[in-house]
């Protein structure tokens, strides 16, 4: 499963990031990176919840994180 993140700045200065493939997986942050990180957390929680409740099969996923 490949997930895409869309991120944009709101008129009030906050950033919003959305995981396109998972409805409702979006989050705000004071920076672009913060919003993207929070959206990733929401997406991973949504996937785990679906698997836990039998709504989806476990996925063959690959997770990579950028070095700090």
What is the fold's blueprint, element by element?
Elements: E1 5-9, E2 15-19, E3 26-29, H1 32-52
Antiparallel strand pairs: 1-2, 2-3
Task: Please describe what this structure looks like.
The chain has 68 residues and is of the alpha+beta class. It has one domain (5-52). The chain has 1 helix and 3 strands; from the N terminus they run βββα. The protein has one helix at 32-52; strands at residues 5-9, 15-19, 26-29. The chain has a 3-stranded antiparallel β-sheet, covered by helices on one side. The two termini are 24 Å apart. The model has no long low-confidence stretch (mean pLDDT 86).
Number of folding domains? 1
- Sheet with the most strands: spatial strand order: 1-2-3
Q: Over all CA atoms, what is the radius of gyration?
A: 13 Å
Helix content: 25-40%
Largest sheet entry: 3 strands, antiparallel
Principal-axes shape call: elongated
Low-pLDDT ranges: none
* Proportion of residues in extended strands: 15-25%
Extended strand count: 3
Overall structural class, as computed from helix and strand content, comes to alpha+beta
Secondary-structure element pattern, one letter each: EEEH
Q: What is the typical, i.e. mean, pLDDT?
A: 86
Distance between the termini: 24 Å
Tell me the number of helical segments per DSSP (H or I, 4 or more residues long): 1
Task: List key phrases describing it.
single chain, 68 residues, alpha+beta, three-stranded antiparallel β-sheet, 1 helix, 21% strand, elongated
């Amino acid at each position: 499963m490949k997930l895409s993140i869309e991120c944009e700045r709101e008129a009030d200065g906050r950033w919003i990031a959305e995981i396109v493939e998972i409805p409702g997986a979006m989050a705000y942050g004071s920076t672009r990176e913060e919003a993207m990180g929070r959206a990733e957390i929401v997406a991973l929680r949504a996937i785990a919840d679906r698997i836990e409740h039998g709504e989806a099969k476990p996925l063959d996923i690959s997770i990579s994180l950028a070095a700090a």
